[in-house]
Amino acid sequence: GDKIVSIEGKKEGKFEGRVVLPSFVNAHTHIGDSIAKEAYVGLTLEQTVDPHTGLKTKILQSSTKKELVSAMRKALKQCVALGVTHVLDFREGGVEGLKLAKAACEGVGVQLALFGRLSKPPSKQRVLSNERFSEAELEELHKVCETAHGIGVSGANEYSDRMLEQIREVAKTHGKLVAVHCLESKNTRNRLKQVFGKDEFQRCVTFLKPDIFVHMTCATRKELALASKTATLVCCPRSNAALANGFPPLREVLKHKGALGTDNVMVNSVDMFREMEFAYKILVGLTKKPFDDVKSVLKAATLNARPLLRLKPLCVDGDANFVLLNLKKLKPFWNLHAAIVNRAQEENVEMVVKQGLVVKSLIRQDALTA
Predict the structure, then answer these.
(1) Element (H, E) at 350
(2) Where are the domains of the chain?
(3) Which superfamily does 24-311 belong to?
(4) Residue closest to 204 by CA, chosen among 165, 235, 253, 247
(5) How confident is the model at residue 365 (pLDDT cuts 50, 70, 90)?
(6) Of 123, 191, 194, which Cα lies nearest the Cα of 163?
(7) Which residues touch 70 (CB under 8 Å, ≥6 apart)?
(8) What is the pLDDT of residues 150-194, one digit of tens each?
(9) Using CA atoms, how far apart are residues 296 and 286, in angstroms rounded to an integer?
């Protein structure tokens, strides 16, 4: 079945040197730009991912459906190999984009929770004029919600106050989640403050009221505390660093049970091991203070985003989503959690189970039943 019926632990036996770990949940990705790996090098955030003029948009528009699906499928297969069973993905391209992602995911062994958006963002002039969505745009948003796990907002600056309210209303009608990129860089905070009288974060809290805040790279302690009261915080440290946006206030985010994501595949691999190690070591390096709560980093990569998917933890009657890590090659080590965060990699992932189904196994079947 898809539920855990019992949990037993032994230090010796056929699984000696192995540990069962909750499977990874990659809390924020853009699988769609798998077609453009490393295309971002030398570019700013805006030059890379601006919905209107960014290089990513141009590449996606010029690629064939077959090319896009093939690239996404490769990335999703890599997720499984690395112990990731669930991915929360921002999907561009409207309803058609959602269809392509689902085609790429078919039979791979990973659950893709898609956060869709309009196929074409509203013009900047309409945003500055505080216009509402057209009837056609609203109809498309409803269709997105019928197909997706929720709506993924590229940023409050891409929409008027009225549009942000409409996004929340549409999602609420369908009982779906709203996720938003927020405070990804210092440049985004006050971009439209003179127009609307509120900064990016204030507009999100007032009008959009999201369930997920992604990035929060430049957020203050008060903003993180306020956001975490009603939403889940998700950080993407490697992406923030690669796109020259700094490093998120991870100590505070972890206090609020935030999650980790790898963000754009064009910028990063989908490797949560690399995300954890980078997050932990840069956190210590930038704050210049020792940090012994390595377990919280591991939870950010495995447990903290699970409530968004209504997944139960690794316990009796919980959802059977876990990985079996073979840590023999990593021994000796003094701290299990630190060893996993800092040293484990794909070769240590011996088995991956999603909802009770084995989706990866390097163990012979007779060894499991013997």
Answers:
(1) strand 349-354
(2) 24-311
(3) Metal-dependent hydrolases (3.20.20.140)
(4) 165
(5) low
(6) 123
(7) 104
(8) 999 999 999 999 999 999 999 999 999 999 999 999 999 999 999
(9) 18
